[in-house]
């Protein structure tokens, strides 16, 4: 009986690894609220993450580099980023370019994670709408774990400069691969360890 109980506990632990951090798929139901379907409330304290962008303005059809990052040693596993009116609406503006570490969602107006590794800093290319859309802001949902996440963390204002003379800004994109700490190998090793423990219990009991 004890052996089967141990095996059940190990099995549930492995199930949690698989189900706790989905790969950012089937999230369109959360496009308006940006709330993940984790059946718990979001954190109410300040998020240890931020959204920055360059340049600080956009013109119709221009490209802006958007970066999400931690402000401490806290990593995030999942995310959703979307541009909205600075005054506040649930409508997404512009489109994100897909990367090796992200998927598009909400008709490409949002970008989400495609893996459950720990992440510290990621950058994306966002293309502004073809027409002037007023001042905007970026909102991000950061997921640290299945039960710990922050919703609609706002950026500063992205100013609409459509039709105005602006000075070109050099925005360099950092190496995002080196700033994202992947944990798939650790998860695999943990699974192997659990299997070894399970086999040991079966033999010894």
From TrEMBL:
One GO CC term on file: membrane
Ranges annotated as spanning the membrane: 186-204
Coiled coil: none
Keywords recorded for this protein, A-Z: Membrane, Signal, Transmembrane, Transmembrane helix
Domain of life: Eukaryota
UniProt signal peptide: 1-20
PROSITE patterns attached to this UniProt entry: REELIN
PANTHER family named in the record: CYTOCHROME B561/FERRIC REDUCTASE TRANSMEMBRANE, REELIN DOMAIN-CONTAINING PROTEIN
UniProt name for this protein: Ferric-chelate reductase 1
